[in-house]
Structures are given as C-alpha cells and as structure tokens.
Model the fold of this input.
Amino acid sequence: MTRIEQTDDLETLAERAGRELEDAPAPDILRWAADTFGPRFCVTSSMEDAVVAHLASRAFPGVDVVFLDTGYHFPETIGTRDAVAAVMDVNVITLTPRQTVAEQDASYGPKLHDRDPDLCCALRKVKPLEEGLRGYDAWATGLRRDESPTRANTPVVGWDAKRQKVKVSPIARWTQADVDAYVAEHGVLTNPLLMDGYPSVGCAPCTRRVLEGEDARSGRWAGSTKTECGLHG
Done:
C-alpha cells in the first residue's frame, strides 16, 4: 500500500489499539508498536529522562530516538542526549530548526521566546518535528496523565490527526512514583536538572525551578497562559 492509502487504516488501527491496550503494561504497548510498524516507528525524547527510550530499546533494539535541539537547551539536556546515545541500544537522531538562533534573531528580532513564545515554539520545535517524522507511521512520547490537566485524557495509543500518524504514549497511566521506581530499578539516565528543582525541563529561557506545591509543569512559560509547546496540541 502507498502511504496515502494507509491513512484511514492507520487511524482505525490507532483507535482500536487505544481501547485494547488501555490496561496493558508499557512494555507490551511498545512491543505492539515495534511489531506493527517496525522501522517506521520512532521514539521522541526531550531528554528530561530516558525512560521511554529505555523501555523502547528493550522492545525494539536500535530504535530511532528523535531529539529536537532547539538551540536553547540547558547544557545538562545536551549532555543527557549524548549519554543516551553512548550507553543505550538506540539510534539517536537530532533534529534542528531551519534557522540558527542567530539567524532567527536577525529575522524576527532577539528573544522571540519572550515576545511570541508560540511562534518561537512553532519555528524551533513544531516545524522541525513535522519534517523529522515524515519517514514514520507512528511515534512514541513520554506524556503522562498526571503531569497536568491538559494531559489528563492522553490515550496510550491515539491518532495524531495533525500529522496523520499513530501516537503512542506507553507510560500515560504512570505516576511520578512509577517513573521514579523504574529509574531506580534499571539505572535509567535522567537529566541532572530533575534533581535541581526542575521537574519538567524545556528550553532554558522558558523554564524555571518549581516552587513547593506547584504542579510539575508550572515552571514552563511561567507568568504566561501558555502551557504546551504545540507538539502535543
């Protein structure tokens, strides 16, 4: 079948799998994705931690792990990416925006992230990911329902209508305690910033430490109404 002819079947497949795998363990969800899509399946990672990459590497050794280098990352995030590439059985693929930060500053003015964060995210995250996912039919994320109200209904397998792809969120039902337990049991790499008051790690200009009692993502775009970068909207 051609890619276009598959689209309706992929949507039906995603909706059915979402129902059938709702209560399945994360490794089983990833094995289903690996068996169903093979090399047309990838994992995306912000390198906040490598939990989903680790889970996927056991279901599909050598799986592609796609990372968006926005040009604004903390050094710790780039270091985590490099460590994942060095020690895990995955193929890390780094995507970059069409413009460097300097080129974007020249086109739009400096600190676009302060003046129009939605446009900055669109240019440095959303567009590069759309281009980078063209060779895949399905992609996995680390989204969890407990992270924020906007993610509370995340399906374990769903249909990404914007990109016309199957979207797999194998740890959607996990809690932070589940993540912590998995990291401890398997010695999974995590971003050092998680131990320094940043429970959610994004681009440096738009991420601050979280105060006691705040939800995990309150440090992202603090002081604005923005809650998501657009990758999952």
Q: What stands out?
A: The chain is about 40% helix and 10% strand. The beta strands are 41-44, 63-68, 90-95, 138-140, 157-160, 165-168. Residues 47 and 63 are 15 Å apart (CA to CA).
